[in-house]
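anyone seen this seq b4? input:
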Amino acid sequence: MRSTFFESRRNALFCFGQMRKECCGCVGARSQVGCRLLFISPLWTQIRTKTRMGGRWNFTERTIIFRFIHSPEFNPRLRVMDSTERNENPKEVGAGSVSRLFALLRTLGEVPEGGERVTQLAQQVGLSQPTTHRLLRSLMDEGMVEQDARSKRYRLSLEFFALAANAGKTGNLRDLVRPSMLRLSASLGDSLFLLARSGFDAICLDRSEGPYPIRTFTGDIGGRVALGVGQGSLAILAFLPEEERETVIRYNLPRLKDFHLYDEVLLRSEVENVRRLGYAARNTGVLEGMAGLAVPILNRDGHAVAALSVATISDRLGPSRLPMVVELLKREAAAIGPRINPFDPTLRRPSQTFGG
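predicted toks r here
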């Protein structure tokens, strides 16, 4: 059946002009004779001559033209825009598809809570919209992505998070931090502590003993103290999300007064000081002869989930030694943070992780 698209000679000449310009970038060497994809056809010369002379095409000629006009090589809407998809090596195409798939997953992991539209996702990933849509459909088929029926926005599914949680069951915070504590204890010759947040408190998850006899607020492993009491819990408090930090401060202020440590003004001032310095080292004098220093262990969002703390006698944490200790603790904490498993049950129920 003859297409109305080719009913007039003007339309035909326009189409062939667009072929030479758009179909496959051959406007240089073959611009006068048309696209190399049609040039290989023995009917091309005949078709071109008829077009110029205003002749009528037969069925075979119309079929060739129709198929070409509706092919990806000619039509920009059908043309594959991603360079990796133009690659003729099947192995490289497969590797490129995997890379694009993970790039899309990472982008979905950063979208707002309500999800994102395919157009925005395509722009962020750097892919064409049809390619992005095809990848999204594949992920939806596997249950990793879901689409809101009303907004048409895409987001990671609960199945994806369940899979991530299952993969993250190996190891916990104590196992992750233990080598750092042993290194610090050996190099500093002091006692090291790992504290983790538990609601409005901090719990001692682990300790590595140094040669000097010390006293601490948390005591042994499993000891609990209100956030804000002692350097370790203060370091955690200072780097909580702002709304959570305010809630904890309001709740814990009466508890802190029992230790005769802070009033509200002094506590808020100390929190800001810790945030500015990146560590807590204020000696309150409650534990006479003792001194301590702590740095927060931050998650990927920059919020504290735990703290590394060193406790020693006051003479060993003077102004000359303090910068070196701070640097060592910060270095270890910075190395630990990116490796924290966000699904680690220790971060939700630290009191259930005690043991040898």
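The CA atoms of residues 180 and 332 lie 6 Å apart. Confidence is low (pLDDT under 50) at residues 1-43, 72-95. kinda curious what u guys think
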